[in-house]
């Protein structure tokens, strides 16, 4: 039996055309900023700019006071709680908080603040998938992202008030709302960066399959033994967890574990060994020649194999 090279699992990140919209409330007058620019005073005024690159972005002008690290963490936690409350109101399961995702989110917020841009794509061309690979390489899963910018004169706001403005902005923006209510996502975390009167917020979502205990080497020697251990995540069971190794020769055949009459071409299905709890281990040897390998994890369900992009290893 021939098993074709498995296609990557479709990632729940939307490529959409750019669009712009704004919404306004009752204007009661104008006030002058310290820089001489005039802004309408409103009970609740919001101007949103949506840029669709990988996910969606939202700009929201609002006054903020400087905050210390504890308050930033409080804003993040409040955002996550409000987001889960919103999901429950819409009959969706809660998203578990993953501190690895928070690292990715904080890195992006800090980078946007430091380099003065506001986008899912960085000035050097990196997108959300690149950031997951750089800052959370142990994760196998599909990424998603919402970003938000708040700026204005320094006015004291509580963490709960700031979080409510962020989440309300996303709730009232259809594409942000879609990410918040996406049924495929299992985990999320918010990362905040703040300086002066500017705040950048990033929420990274993921449909998590598995997390390795340690990163794998990026360079190895031919014949090296590769041993992977970790935990399955999200809705995947140990029985559904699947592992696959892309090999340098796309024409080479590999036998399939526990299926003596089956083989794969261009890659090898690896046996996932269940351990205690949700833990697993995988072992294989890099003995299919020199060149580019890629270790992937995903799930097998109803005879279908779906894998997320994985860890690339150059064998010398």
Q: Write down the domain tally.
A: 2
Helix content: 10-25%
CATH topology of the largest domain: Pathogenesis-related Protein p14a
Biggest sheet character: 8 strands, mixed
Describe the structure.
With 316 residues, this protein is α+β, with helices and mostly antiparallel strands. The protein folds into 2 domains: 58-208, Pathogenesis-related Protein p14a, CATH 3.40.33.10; 213-315, Sandwich (Immunoglobulin-like), CATH 2.60.40.10. Helix content is 21%, strand content 39%. The chain has 5 helices and 21 strands. Strands 6, 7, 8, 9, 10, 12, 17 and 18 form an 8-stranded mixed β-sheet that branches. Strands 11, 13, 16, 19, 20 and 21 form a 6-stranded mixed β-sheet that branches. A hairpin with a 2-residue loop joins strand 9 (187-195) and strand 10. 36% of the residues are buried.
Summarize the structure.
The protein has helices spanning 69-89, 99-115, 128-135, 159-171, 174-180, and strands at residues 2-3, 19-20, 27-32, 38-42, 49-50, 56-61, 96-97, 139-151, 187-195, 198-212, 219-220, 225-232, 241-246, 253-256, 259-265, 267-270, 273-274, 279-285, 291-301, 304-307, 311-315. By secondary structure, the chain is an alpha+beta fold.
Spell out the blueprint of helices and strands:
Layout: E1 2-3, E2 19-20, E3 27-32, E4 38-42, E5 49-50, E6 56-61, H1 69-89, E7 96-97, H2 99-115, H3 128-135, E8 139-151, H4 159-171, H5 174-180, E9 187-195, E10 198-212, E11 219-220, E12 225-232, E13 241-246, E14 253-256, E15 259-265, E16 267-270, E17 273-274, E18 279-285, E19 291-301, E20 304-307, E21 311-315
Parallel strand pairs: 1-15, 6-8, 7-9, 11-21
Antiparallel strand pairs: 2-5, 3-4, 8-10, 9-10, 10-12, 12-18, 13-16, 13-19, 14-15, 17-18, 19-20, 19-21
Helix pairs in contact: 1-4
């Amino acid at each position: 039996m021939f098993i074709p090279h498995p296609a990557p699992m479709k990632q729940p990140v939307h490529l959409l055309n750019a669009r712009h919209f704004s919404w306004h409330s009752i204007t009661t007058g104008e006030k002058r900023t310290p820089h001489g620019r005039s802004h309408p005073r409103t009970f609740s005024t919001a101007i949103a700019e949506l840029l669709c690159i990988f996910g969606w972005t939202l700009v929201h002008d609002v006054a903020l006071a400087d905050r210390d690290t504890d308050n930033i963490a409080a804003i993040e936690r409040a955002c996550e709680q409000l987001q889960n409350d919103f999901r429950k109101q819409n009959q969706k399961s809660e998203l578990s908080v993953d501190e690895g995702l928070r690292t990715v989110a904080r890195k992006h917020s800090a980078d946007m603040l430091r380099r003065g841009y506001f986008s899912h794509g960085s000035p050097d061309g990196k997108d959300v998938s690149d950031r997951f690979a750089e800052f959370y390489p142990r994760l196998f899963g599909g990424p998603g992202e919402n970003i938000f910018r708040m700026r204005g004169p320094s006015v004291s706001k509580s963490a709960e008030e700031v979080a409510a403005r962020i989440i309300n902005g996303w709730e009232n923006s259809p594409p942000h709302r879609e990410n918040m209510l996406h049924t495929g996502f299992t985990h999320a975390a918010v990362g905040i960066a703040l300086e002066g009167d500017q705040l950048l917020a990033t929420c990274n979502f993921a449909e998590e399959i598995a997390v390795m205990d340690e990163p794998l080497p990026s360079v190895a020697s031919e014949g090296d033994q590769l041993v992977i251990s970790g935990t399955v995540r999200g809705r995947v069971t140990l029985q559904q967890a699947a592992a696959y190794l892309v090999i340098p020769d796309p024409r080479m055949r590999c036998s399939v574990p526990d299926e003596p009459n089956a083989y794969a071409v261009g890659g090898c299905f690896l046996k996932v060994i269940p351990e205690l709890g949700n833990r697993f281990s995988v072992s294989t040897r890099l003995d299919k020649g020199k060149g580019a390998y890629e270790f992937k994890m995903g799930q097998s369900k109803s005879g279908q194999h779906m894998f997320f992009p994985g860890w690339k290893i150059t064998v010398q």
